[in-house]
Request: fold
Amino acid sequence: MSRDSLDDLNSQLLAFARERDWEQFHSPKNLSMALAGEAGELLEHFQWLSEEASSNLSAEKRDAVALELADILIYLIRLGERLDIDLVETAYRKMGINQARYPKEQVRGDARRADEYD
Amino acid sequence: MSRDSLDDLNSQLLAFARERDWEQFHSPKNLSMALAGEAGELLEHFQWLSEEASSNLSAEKRDAVALELADILIYLIRLGERLDIDLVETAYRKMGINQARYPKEQVRGDARRADEYD
Amino acid sequence: MSRDSLDDLNSQLLAFARERDWEQFHSPKNLSMALAGEAGELLEHFQWLSEEASSNLSAEKRDAVALELADILIYLIRLGERLDIDLVETAYRKMGINQARYPKEQVRGDARRADEYD
Amino acid sequence: MSRDSLDDLNSQLLAFARERDWEQFHSPKNLSMALAGEAGELLEHFQWLSEEASSNLSAEKRDAVALELADILIYLIRLGERLDIDLVETAYRKMGINQARYPKEQVRGDARRADEYD
Reply:
């Protein structure tokens, strides 16, 4: 990870886990479950809202959603640390893959997944 | 978000969506589903592995996992942008909440969730 | 489980796992991941569709969705078997809880979650 | 669905939704989110447990897990109803597909996914 805010977060999250002797629980398998559990909580905020309402949250709801996003980021960073994966670098690599997979001329305004183009 | 690699990613992801006229699909509701879908793919890599094996992935599998983490980061950043949430700042705020909720003296080596302490 | 189609499915799924020596992988922890992974695949079918479009699937897409639902049912039955939980009986018990939690006079046409009523 | 306990549950769940005027919220898209949200809650029960511990739950925890499974079954049945999919019949069809995909001689004691066999 480039030296910036994600590195600082990573260091502090690692210290947080070590101070609690929690590294023993932080296998990639377990962290993937924790991340997916938080993703499930995120869904619950939106499941009965229209798409439009999901863009116009009350301040209270928006804050609750913000904290879910933070939980997801926290577990994502922990996974990156445990697996020695540079998240930002890989995100740029994935963007390159997506650019090749979804040429902008071909997919304009069309959200079908790549495997549905044939 | 502080001015660093997440900002740059955010700008490029926004441009990617706009060039494809995909902002119309990127409601927070839909993005939460896409993020949770990627979290599900992440689980599938680990579901039949022991915790130990999940820490010792083959190069090929580790790379596949890295790309899932990248997808999750990408949707997380898109959600932050759509909801005007600073992910890094909120992660620090959540860490503060966790520090109060799980005092290190009390939870050392114990992974029960906060609501199970009483 | 009452003696009916879920029992038959349960017996056949157990035989399927035993013939492959797969019971060793079917811990409740692992099965919960497999189930959530399938739930993630289900989301991916719907994530860019409007609610209305999600009710009007093409025959091909509807069949793909049907197979995801089947996968979820399969892992649900396996979890019930491993934990000795009667799914149907518990679903009736949960319906009773929901009836008390969401009195029909109070929640008519309102989908907020119970913890949002106060 | 064959005439048995799932049919009865289906009828009662439909009545429950109608009495609350909740069918308007029960698009397949929204129900898929609700199901995945419950799958996320299921994960949270198991995420820090060893596989072995996940097979030896306390009575209290086992009951909490049972209620999550019930929630998942409830949303699964609602999805089947909305999309006119016979869950049990499709589960048998999927079992047939799995039997062809994972011949018992070939996969004995090996949990890799089908796409990893080549």
About this structure: Chain A has a mean pLDDT of 93.
